[in-house]
Amino acid sequence: MKGVEFLRNIYAAAGLSIKPKTYISRIEMLKEIIRAWGMDPEKILVKEALREPHRTAIHPIPGEEEQAKILAKALKEMLRNELLN
């Protein structure tokens, strides 16, 4: 027998768990990437909401799909600016 520690290392390497794995949504992932690039994703969402006031009157909080599109567009612009400069 190789010992308890050997088996513990095998189980740890296999990634077995009794807890459910945390799921990170697309929006949260985009927010973390944007934060890593040094920008504030909340400011981007607020700026976009204030840009077109008719949308904010009808839908005060944009849906998840809309937020994901806005954040993805901002990330593309940041990457484009970084690559061109």
Structural description of this entry:
With 85 residues, the chain is an all-alpha fold. The chain has one domain. The chain is built from 5 helices and no strands. The protein has helices at 4-14, 26-36, 41-51, 53-58, 64-84. The relative contact order is 0.12. The model has no long low-confidence stretch (mean pLDDT 81).
List strands and helices in order, with pairings:
Blueprint: H1 4-14, H2 26-36, H3 41-51, H4 53-58, H5 64-84
Please name the defining characteristics of this protein:
85 residues; 5 helices; mainly alpha; elongated
Q: How many E strands? A: 0
The fraction of residues in strands falls at under 5%
Number of domains: 1
How large is the count of helical segments?
5
Unreliable runs: none
What does this entry show, briefly?
This protein is mainly alpha-helical. Helix content is 71%, strand content 0%.
